[in-house]
Prior knowledge:
By secondary structure, the protein is mainly alpha-helical. The chain is built from 22 helices and four strands.
Amino acid sequence: xxxxxxxxxxxxxxxxxxxxxxxxxxxxxxxxxxxxxxxxxxxxxxxxxxxxxxxxxxxxxxxxxxxxxxxxxxxxxxxxxxxxxxxxxxxxxxxxxxxxxxxxxxxxxxxxxxxxxxxxxxxxxxxxxxxxxxxxxxxxxxxxxxxxxxxxxxxxxxxxxxxxxxxxxxxxxxxxxxxxxxxxxxxxxxxxxxxxxxxxxxxxxxxxxxxxxxxxxxxxxxxxxxxxxxxxxxxxxxxxxxxxxxxxxxxxxxxxxxxxxxxxxxxxxxxxxxxxxxxxxxxxxxxxxxxxxxxxxxxxxxxxxxxxxxxxxxxxxxxxxxxxxxxxxxxxxxxxxxxxxxxxxxxxxxxxxxxxxxxxxxxxxxxxxxxxxxxxxxxxxxxxxxxxxxxxxxxxxxxxxxxxxxxxxxxxxxxxxxxxxxxxxxxxxxxxxxxxxxxxxxxxxxxxxxxxxxxxxxxxxxxxxxxxxxxxx
Length: 473
C-alpha cells in the first residue's frame, strides 16, 4: 500500500499527513458512519414522534436522595448493563466479541487470541463487526493520526514525578485541546449538520495519541532516570496494532501481556451511560465542549475511589491479606480465607471487589479474566489467593445477609493479572482503565453530536419541595 511506503521523520500530526490520509482514504470508518447517521437520526425522530409521551419509569424519593440510583433517564446506545447477564455491547456479550471481532495478525503464522482494539473501536462506533480489511485501514488511520507535538511531550515529561498518574492523564488531554478541530470550526461558524464530522476528527486524533500519552506518563513517573530525554522514548510503530504500540512504549514485550491488554481494553471500554465517567463525558459534551474537554472531565470522574481507583484498592487489600497469612504462617486455603472473611465483616469492614450496584451475578468481566488466568498463570500465588477467595467469599456474604450481590466484580481480578506480568505500579492502573474507557465514551460522544442530542438539564428539587410533595401524595 502506498501509505506504508511513506516515511515520516516527525511523528507530529500535521497538514501534510492529513492531506495524504484524506487523498487516499485510508479508512472506511468515516464513510460508514456517514451512511449510518441518517438511519439513526430517523430512528430517534420516529421514536420521539410515536412514543415520546410514554412513561418508562417512576422516581422514588429514595432514588432522588440516593444518587439517582437506577432511574431510567438516559439514552446510551453503545452498551447496556443487565443485572443478570452483565454488560452487553450493541447486544453482544463479551464472549461474543472475543469470538467475532478480528484479531491482530502478529505475523503470517501467528494471530492474537483477543480482539484487536481497532476492531473494538470500529464495532463500538458502528455497531457492526468489521472485516479484516476495515481493521487494517483503521489501524493505519490511527498510525497516521498518532504523534504528540514536542511542546506537549515536554510538558508531560516535566510533570512532577509525585503527581498522581490520573492527574497527569487528565492534564495531558487538556494540553491537546488547542488542537481541537471542532472548537476551531465552531468558532468559525458551522451548522449542526457539520458537528459530527469535526467531532469525528477530534475523537480519532485523540484516541490515536492515547498510547503515547499514557506511556509517557508511565515512563515519566516510574522510569524517570531512564526516559528523561525526549529522544529515548519509543515511537508509534506502523507494523504494530494500537495495543501492541502501547505495550511496546511502556517496555512490555510479552505477547501474552499484549493479549491481556487487548482484553483489558475490551472489558473496560464501556459500562452503559449512568456510571460517573461515562455520564460526565456525556454531560460536558452536551454543552458542545469539544472531545478533549469532555474526555478530560470523564477521566477526573474515573479517578475517584468509588469508581476507577477501586481496582488498585483491591490489589492493595489482596497484598495485605497475602502478607498477613505469611506472617501468621497460615496457608491459603478455604478455612483460612473463610476465617479472614468473617473477621473482616465482623469488624464492620467490607470485602473489596465483591458486590455491584447493578449486577446480581458474577461479573462477566471477572469471569473472562479468570479464564485468562487459568490459561496463562494458573500457578501464580496471588491468583491462587484470588481463586480461593472466589470459592469461599460468596457463601460467606450470603450467610452474612447484608449484600445484595455476593459475587466478584471486575476490580477483584484485574490487578492480579497486571502484577503477574510485572506492572506493579498500582496507582497507574486507573490510567489503564481510562485508556479502555475512552473507547466507549468517545464513541457515544460521536453519536451525541451526530444525533444532535440536547444539552442535559435535569430538574433538581429542594428538601422542602420533597417534604411538601410527599405530604400531598
